Amino acid sequence: MPLSLGLRDEDNERINNQLKKLISLVFVPDGWSDDDADAQLEGIGLSLEKLKTITPEALNNHLTEAGTDWQNMELFADFLAKLSENENYSELKQKAVSLYSYIQSGSKVFSFDIANKISRLK
Question: What is this structure's pTM?
Answer without folding.
Answer: 0.88
